[in-house]
Every structure is written in C-alpha cells, then in structure tokens.
Amino acid sequence: MNFSELFKLSGLLGRFSPDGRCLASCVQYRLVVRDVNTLRILQLYTCLDQIQHIEWSSDSLFILCAMYKRGIVQVWSLEQPDWHCKIDEGSAGLVASCWSPDGRHILNTTEFHLRITVWSLCTKSVSYIKYPKACQQGIAFTKDGRYMAVAERRDCKDFISIFVCSDWQLLRHFDTETQDLFGIEWAPNGCVLAVWDTCLEYKILLYSLDGRLLSTYRAYEWSLGIKSIAWSPSSQFLAIGSYDEKVRILNHVTWKKITEFEHPATIANAKTIVYKEVEKSPSVETERLSFPPTRALASSLFSTQSKYDISQVPVSLQYIKPVADRANPKMGIGMLAFSPDNCFLATKNDNIPNAVWIWDVQKLKLFVVLEQLCAIQSFQWDPRQPRLAVCTGNSKVYLWSPAGCVSVQVPMEGDFQIVSLSWHSSGDSMALLSKDNFCVCYLEREEV
C-alpha cells in the first residue's frame, strides 16, 4: 500500500471522475482537478464563492460547482478551460443541483422546493418541473439514464412523475399511497421503483415503470419505521433497514420477506467470525534510533498501531442506549450496502456504533463482525471485488475481504482523521478524506 502526500480540502468535496482519469477537489472557492496517477494539477478554476457541492458529468468532460448560499451554479469544461457557464437562480434561491444522465442538462431545485429548473447546456433552453417534494431523496434516475422519477407534493398528497430524459416529456404521473413520502430509488435494472414513507409509518411501496403498484410491504405499526434501504446490484433483493435494529430482505419475485437479520449486542453463534481491533504499542529497537528520528519513524513512534484479533464467542459488543425523547435518535440500521458481486451485505446498527456486520447473502446468515475501537464513520465496497474499506475518524484505514482483515496506519505527520472514503472505479486506489485534507491510497492487486 502506498500513500500520497496530504492535500488541502474543504467540505469533504473530493470526487474521482467517472472515467477514472481525474480527481477533483475543492479548497474554499477553488476547484482543483488532478491527474489520478501523478496527482499533478491539470486545471485550477476559481468560483465566485465557497463551493458547497461538486459533481462530474457522466462523460467526465464537465464539472459543476454549486454555491447554494449565492443561488449560483458554475460549470467548467476540462477540454476547453476558457469556456464556462454560470447559472444564477436569482431570488428563487438554490437548495440542490445535479446532472442529468446525459451530462448536458443541469437540474436545480429552488428554495422551498417551489420547482426544479432543467437547464440545457446545448440549446440554452429551460424547462420547469413544478411541486417537487422536500424529502431526503426526491429525484431518482434509472441506471441506464433513460428515465427520471420525481417525488411531488400537491394538495397535501404525494405523487410520482416519471419523465423520459431524452426530451423531458412526462411518461407517467400517479399518486402514491404514502402519508409523507420520504424517498424513492430505482432498482438497478430500472424496472421497479421503491417508494418509502416517513419514519413514523413503516411502509414501502414498489411501482412498475408504468405506474402500477406491484406490492406494499409493512413489517409493523405504531413504532418508528424505515431508516435506510439498498438494492442488490442484481435487483433480486431489496434490503430495508429499520429503527427496530433489523434488516429485512425482500425478494424480487413475490416482494415478500425472505429473511430478517437481527443485530444483537451479544454474538453467540460459533460459526460467526468476530474480528476485534486491539491497540499495540509500537516496538522500536533503541539501538536503531537516530535523533532527530526520520519522519516516517517519528510518525510511527508516536502513533498507536492497531491490529485485529479473532475473538472467542460469545462476544459482547459495546451497546449505546438511545435517548428516546430526542428527534432522530441514534438507533436502528443507519448504513447498508451490497457488495458488487451480490455475495455480501454490510450493515451498521447505530445502537452499536463501533461494529460493522457482514452478511453472507447466498446463505442468508451472519458471516463476520468487525469490532472497531472507534465509531464507524463510513464504509464502502470496492467496485470490482468483495473488499470493504472502513474508516472510523482516526488516521487508519481498515480493509476486509473473505481472505481476512487488515488495519493500515496512514503515515502522515499531524492529525489526519479520516471521516469519509471513496474508491476509484478500478478498485486500485481510494481517496481518504478528512475535514481539512485528503490523500490517495494506492493498493497493489494482491493485497487483502
């Protein structure tokens, strides 16, 4: 494993381009585009204000920078650095901005969700979509980029509109059987749209592309409901994480529950492997010490190393009792993600913040638990193989694969607390992001 030097960053805005050639990062109002392999600066753009959101176009030729406070989006071209485009929403304001799948239209959501404005970079034409709903996930594109679903709210009722992305014509418009729609997400094959209700109502609805209701699923009533969902890459499974600390898996044939995964504080099954992170003091032979010590030696001397031990079951995990009388209690399944080969599902139960649970999807049972010393900040699967990267807000990155588990110290001076990470599309490197800095970690093919 090799690590680049640290580079400045603000707002956790570091993104690999879809074609994998470039890495864009933001420092206040500057956008820096680097070559992925050499990290040499290819372009440097200056925006009108502090950047709050960046996004690559699907063909990696353009990059948009949104400045929500000013209601402005600036678009930059990598091929023609002199060309640029500025979209000013004026008094309407701006709360969200994203690319359409063709990389030539920009969708801006105005303040108070009054409308979505669709701007064309090619024809400079403008279209409007009225009544978008203010919810966590209100716009969803199919993976092939042909259709867009938009959640809408009119006359105190929820609706879905499905548009054809090539000409923004309305394909279907239908009302949904939700009290207060919270999010929508297409299955990867683009055939089914999952629509779920607010956490006060456990309800998930599955609609076909032509607006037919295929199925409704409710696990229980009168308690906090759905917290997170994830489709498997094959579209065969829908995983639903709930506030009751369980994940329920629905199948794509009958849309009925095939199993549920519980997340208890004690792991009792002898077939489950529990990797526990333990600290070890750095061992340095005193004869080899030179003063002043070299940079690499100094950083390893004063940073605590860690490794994984395999714990004997039963194992008791650190459990936090949530504060029940506060909004958004820290409880239930807050994160879940399928591996790209459909074989594994990684989950995090917010009541047990230091553990990652890895489930075998083929056998529908718990496979591995990683118990960390600090709370899990983020995890992400390698896009090419079943390999999970985890960060916990310290200067280490953790990798799990079916072959085993490894903890790697990032050899940096000073305080580098990794709170987010993202894989390169090749799976050969990843960007490790802290609040003020980022670095790139390069992996050899043979590693765990």
From TrEMBL:
GO cellular component: microtubule organizing center; MWP complex
Native source organism of the sequence: Pygoscelis papua
Chain's gene name: Wrap73
Name of this chain's protein: WRP73 protein
InterPro entries assigned: Centrosome-WD_assoc (IPR052778), Quino_amine_DH_bsu (IPR011044), WD40/YVTN_repeat-like_dom_sf (IPR015943), WD40_rpt (IPR001680)
Pfam families: WD40 (PF00400)
Domain of life from the UniProt record: Eukaryota
